Amino acid sequence: MSVSTPVIPFAPAQLRSEGGDRQGLIRAYLFRPGAAPVSVDSAAEAEALLGRIGDGFLWLHLNASRAGADAWMRTHTNLSDNFHEALREGSRSTRIERDGDALFAVINDVTFDFAFDASDVATLWVSVRSDLVVSARRQPLRSVDRLRMAAKHGTSFGSSVALLDELLRDQADELQRIARKATDRVDVIEDAVLTGHHEKHAAELARLRRLMVRLQRMLAPEPSALARTLAYPPAWVAAEDTQRLQQASGEFAVVLRDIGSLQERIKLMQEEAAARISDANARTLFTLTMVTVLALPINLISGLFGMNVGGIPLGDHHGGFWIMVSLIVGLTGLIAWIAVRWIGRGSKD
To answer: How far apart, in Å, are the Cα atoms of 277 and each of 153, 167, 281, 286, 291?
Structure first.
């Protein structure tokens, strides 16, 4: 028997903005089996549906930075204190855990203006029940917006856990895209470092390494929490949904291994660049030392002849100047010959 879906009137443009309405609601969708998702365009309509959904589930996506968002969720969604506490404290450790008869997830994703900077990672808090999914964020995020656009274009999900699974896969895809772009950039930098153009890339290598470390730390789900959740899921979670979450966890593991390998490559390039810089500094210091040694005769003799005392040799000789120049040149040549022979013997050794 088909289930009729409520007719949702057209909402004002300001209710559909990225900032959400005054209750913080950005967008909501009602999902029913075998039917396209129905857009719920205002908090009042969402309130009317809560508790009377029946077969299917409701997804509420909110902007937690709005002043009235937390109060509205406390009044109408019956979420656990754990969700509100995590939202208030800004808990950012990626995890999926059981929260009573619901699933609670903290998912980190990149912002829309992501520019390979470690500060462009933001958090999404998600509560999943059999009939309700509530997601809250403070900054626009890429993966959840792709999920929202998919629902807008008619993509349906058979259960609330299926929607969470799709969100996790979108995040894994976004993480893979970041890793691929970072790998392409590292390839270019690696070629430059190996050809000796390492000075101008040191700062970028450090920035990429910080980004990989933060992505690996923040985006990797806690394995212990996920294992406990999958071992003892809520009774309403189907075995098929549990298997989906296990597969999503496996996709994250693959991407995180790629990020770990990329991080190791960046570390090796930094060591190579540091070694080349050290060699260049050593050559510069050696050159300065050689110049100082070769200038020793002229400095010593000019110091001696510059003293205003009697008995200066060759002071009255008509060719004294050229004699002293010849002496300085001879001593400098002798020192240079000794230095060259010493350097040649050291290179052979």
So the answer is: 54, 45, 6, 14, 21
Q: Can you read off the two tokens belonging to residue 278?
A: 């050290």
- pLDDT of 29 reads 92
The DSSP secondary-structure symbol of 29 reads: E
Q: Look at the pTM and tell me if it is higher than 0.90.
A: no
pLDDT at position 3: 39
95-100 average pLDDT score = 85
Two tokens at 343? 């350097």
Asked if 152 contacts 28 with a C-beta cutoff of 8 angstroms, the reply is: no
Give CA 28 to chain center in angstroms.
29
Question: How large is the average pLDDT for residues 123-146?
Answer: 88
Is residue 309 very low, low, confident or very high in pLDDT (cuts 50, 70, 90)?
low
pLDDT at 115 over 70: no
Which residue in 20, 31, 30, 110 sits closest to 68, CA to CA?
20
Alpha carbon distances (Å) from 81 to 78, 99, 100, 107: 9, 10, 11, 18
Tell me which residue of 6, 130, 106 sits closest to 56, measured CA to CA.
130
Among residues 205, 116, 118, 133, the alpha carbon closest in space to that of 167 is found at 133
Is 58's pLDDT higher than 90? yes
**What single letter denotes the amino acid at residue 285?**
L
148/151 Cα distance (integer angstroms):
5
**CB under 8 Å, gap of 24 or more: what pairs does 257-261 form?**
258/176, 258/179, 258/183, 259/175, 259/179, 259/212, 259/215, 259/216, 260/216
Write the class of the CATH domain 13-274.
alpha beta
What are residue 241's DSSP bridge partners?
none
Cβ-in-10-Å burial (0-12, 13-18, 19+) of 129 comes to buried
Per cent of the chain over pLDDT 90 is 6
As a whole number, mean pLDDT of residues 24-52 equals: 87
